[in-house]
Write a structure and sequence with these properties.
Layout lengths: L1 E2 L2 E6 L9 E4 L10 H7 L5 E4 L3 E3 L2 E3 L11 H22 L6 E6 L1 H12 L4 E7 L18 E7 L9 H10 L4 E7 L7 H11 L2
Parallel strand pairs: 3-4, 3-7, 7-8, 8-9, 9-10
Antiparallel strand pairs: 1-2, 2-4, 5-6
Bound molecules: D-malate.
């Protein structure tokens, strides 16, 4: 499907009690990558899964970067607003309640999910951030994230994410009133069953 120049996947949920999910893939992924994860985490959920619109030598991403771990904050800000506007339009198109989505983001997708929380908190009800790092250095505005729960799942042997980042990011989000849980696993950047268990626990599924 295409809307506002975004390719995306949409699945209508079968369980009205299951939270709708916004899936945000990692670098080089696409809108189909996290569908199996979503089915395991919450089989009855409505799923909205856009493809990152930036191409880094053919690898899809949600914002361009200057180098690995080096970011152009104006670019991240601009792309965050473009994605937020797409999500709002897609919610209108498919009858998803505004602000009810839980983001499930991996790596670059986790990073833009965190940016959404910092810049456009109205778009999400909460987020599962798998291997995020600090991209935007500013705290979420006071009370902007009240009632929004966030899980940060990180690997202590992750070669991409600096070890201080999970707690730093948690503090930036807590400043906005979010309830943030940081789970550290003795693993690297790739996802494992530990992430799935933590995410299921977070969702209560
Ligand atoms: C990013 O660029 O968002 C992070 O470095 C994660 C990734 O490698 O994509």
């Amino acid at each position: 499907m295409t809307l506002h120049n975004h390719h995306y996947h949409y699945t209508i949920g079968t369980d009205p009690a299951a939270p709708p999910l916004l899936l945000l893939h990692g670098t080089g992924g696409n809108e189909n990558d996290l569908l199996p994860l979503a089915r395991v985490l919450s089989p009855g959920s409505t799923v909205l899964s856009p493809r990152g619109r930036v191409s880094e030598r053919g690898a899809n991403r949600f914002f361009a970067r200057l180098a690995e771990g080096v970011f152009d904050l104006d670019e991240v800000t601009r792309r965050t607003h473009v994605l937020a506007d797409f999500v709002i339009a897609a919610c209108g198109e498919h009858g998803i309640e505004a602000g009810s989505l839980i983001a499930v983001g991996f790596s670059n997708g986790a990073n833009i999910a965190a940016s959404l929380l910092q810049l456009r908190p109205e778009v999400l009800a909460g987020a599962i951030l798998l291997r995020p790092m600090v991209v935007l250095p500013d705290s979420a505005p006071k009370d902007s994230l009240l009632g929004k729960r966030v899980l940060i799942a990180s690997g202590t042997q992750d070669p991409i994410v600096p070890s201080a980042h999970p707690e730093k990011l948690a503090d930036l989000l807590r400043a906005g009133g979010s309830e943030v849980s940081v789970q550290l696993f003795p693993i690297g950047h790739q996802l494992t069953t530990a992430d799935i268990m933590a995410a299921k626990d977070f969702l209560g599924s």
